[in-house]
Design a protein that fits this description.
Elements: H1 2-28, E1 33-34, E2 37-38, H2 39-62
Antiparallel strand pairs: 1-2
Helix pairs in contact: 1-2
Length: 69
């Protein structure tokens, strides 16, 4: 179970960073829309995914079984 939470946290964090970078680049280029949504909505979704990843890692740390690097 801990391994699944580790992979889920890593995946959510990577996708969150990717969403934020893409939304930032689209917004810097002068566009407001991305994939039919406002670029800031995509950015907010990325931040939410990164927060979820942090909470998944925190859950592992509070159990006393930190993931192996």
């Amino acid at each position: 179970m801990n391994q699944a939470v580790t992979w889920l946290g890593n995946g959510a964090g990577a996708v969150g960073v990717l969403f934020c970078v893409i939304a930032g680049l689209v917004r810097i280029s002068g566009n407001y829309w991305l994939w039919g949504m406002d670029a800031m909505t995509v950015f907010t979704a990325g931040v939410g995914l990164m927060v979820f990843a942090c909470l998944a890692k925190l859950q592992l740390l509070t159990q006393g079984q930190a993931p192996n690097p």
